């Protein structure tokens, strides 16, 4: 559905419109969608072949569609990895698997059932794998920003943040049912604020205990409230419900912003204490310190 242009002073605009992250174009968009189109050529010629050739073309179609899906999922995982300052590498190198499967699909498509010569299929395999890898690159192959951190704590934070991200994704998906672009932007504003807290907790896993209620209970409640509001508004266009929902978003955004600021101040206080302890120790050992 087309969306009407709206700005800060447009009728029905949200009270705090900003540039939400949801408005950015994903890297997993047009380029990777092309990979889902190319295998269709296999089907167009499959039913013009002998049974063995038809089987190979249909199998090649399936393999290349799987490669396209893995590549898309790999790009989504890479986007999430790049968005975080502290992140674990993806558990499965999906883009690399996508490269190999693309080459395999092309090799199967190029195999002649009459001769079963492997020269052309081998060339197709190498060409397809190299071109795919060149176009989409490798998956992240190492953890980022975890040097010196407790692995158990970072894994624990990663699980909580992943669950919180699912709540945010559900909110953004649900609010689309209300068909109000201003509210979609407003929810995206809150998503950006919440992710600010995620980054703080990822950088210092000790903050998780203090922030856990925000990342769990509050986001779960926000998700449920968004689902209920979107369904109600889509049916009745209830303006009172919309006002209440926007007030809820204001309260949530304010609470998350204040808590994030408090976490940062607490981290600064802990750093100051550690610096003072180090200074005292250096002075006791007779070392002059200008830390």
Give a verbal description of the structure.
- The chain folds into two domains: 23-136; 151-284.
- It is flat, with a radius of gyration of 26 Å.
- The protein contains nine helices and no strands.
- α3 packs antiparallel against α4, α4 runs antiparallel to α5 and α6 runs antiparallel to α7.
- It has 291 residues and is mainly alpha-helical.
- The model is unreliable at 1-24 (pLDDT under 50).
Topology:
Elements: H1 30-37, H2 40-46, H3 51-83, H4 94-109, H5 119-136, H6 151-175, H7 181-203, H8 208-236, H9 239-284
Helix pairs in contact: 1-3, 2-3, 3-4, 4-5, 6-7, 6-8, 7-9, 8-9
Number of helices: 9
Number of strands: 0
Q: What is the CA-atom radius of gyration, in angstroms?
A: 26 Å
Low-confidence stretches: 1-24
Please state the average pLDDT score: 81
- Cα(first) to Cα(last) distance is 59 Å
Overall shape = flat
Q: Report on the biggest sheet.
A: none
